[in-house]
Structure formats: structure tokens, C-alpha cells
Amino acid sequence: MATQAFQWGPLARGVYIAMLWLTILVGWHYTHFLYHYVALLIFLGLCLKPLLVATGLAERLSAFTDRVDEGRWARITQRRRAEAARKERDKRYRHRHQKDSRLPDKW
Predict the structure, then answer these.
(1) Among 2, 85, 96, 106, whose Cα sits 20 to 30 Å from the Cα of 14?
(2) Model pLDDT, residue 1
(3) Does residue 1 form part of some domain?
(4) Digit-coded pLDDT (tens) for 92-104
(5) Is 87 found in the same domain as 66?
(6) What does the DSSP 8-state code read for residue 47?
(7) DSSP structure class, residue 43
(8) Is there a domain that residue 26 lies in?
(9) DSSP state of 5
């Protein structure tokens, strides 16, 4: 089975469902905006996804978010590796039988 390249996230789905429920409120209080609001919902529900896929904006956004996530995880990994190396160095210096002259007095 082929998977789709672009899918809406949970936040976008939740916002769209909330907008669908707010149609009642818009129709009740702001009747002069109802036609524009319904046209916006139809555009968002039926036309936006094919438009994003056809123009390639979905792939660009996906590539951008992937690059940002990779950079963030690289920084986290680098920080963890530095912390592990520091712990190993401290462990090596603490368990020496002779005092190292480079260490502080009460090490």
C-alpha cells in the first residue's frame, strides 16, 4: 500500500474541526460573514492540500522541518557526548592513586 507524502498534523486537524464547530457561532452572530467563512472552510478542506502538493511547498516545508530537527538532535547528542567524556575524565582523575598536579586542592 502506498503512503501519502503529505498528511495534516494533529494541530491542523484540531484547528479545522474547531473551525467547523464555530460555523454555528459565526452563522448565529455574524451572518454577514457566513458565506465567506464557509468558502474559507471549503478551500481549506478541499483545495489547500492539493495546492500545497502541486506547488511543492509541502516537500519544502517537510525538508525544512527535517533539517531543523536534525540540527537540534545533533546539538543534544553533542552535549550528551561531552557530558559522558567529562564524567569519564573526572572518574579517571578521582580514582588515581597519586595526586595530579593539574587538579584543584580538594579534588
Answers:
(1) 2
(2) 41
(3) no
(4) 877 766 766 777 7
(5) yes
(6) I
(7) I
(8) yes
(9) S
Cα–Cα distance between 66 and 60 in angstroms, integer? 10
- Is residue 88 domain-resident? yes
Note down the domain range covering 45: 15-55
Separation CA 69–CA 91 (nearest Å): 33
Nearest-CA neighbor of 50 among 19, 84, 8? 8
Same-domain check for residues 51 and 21? yes
Q: What CA–CA distance (Å, rounded) separates 47 from 62?
A: 19
Radius of gyration of the chain (CA): 28
pLDDT tens digit string along 51-98? 988 898 988 988 998 999 999 999 999 999 999 999 988 888 777 667
Q: Three-state DSSP class for 101?
A: coil
Q: How far apart are CA 16 and CA 72, in angstroms?
A: 29
105 within a domain of the structure (yes/no): no
Could you tell me the three cell numbers for 103? 587538579
Domains: count for the chain: 2
Question: Is residue 39 located within the same domain as residue 49?
Answer: yes
User: For the packed helices 57-94 and 48-55, what is the interaxial angle rounded to 10 degrees?
Assistant: 80
Report which DSSP code applies to 45: I
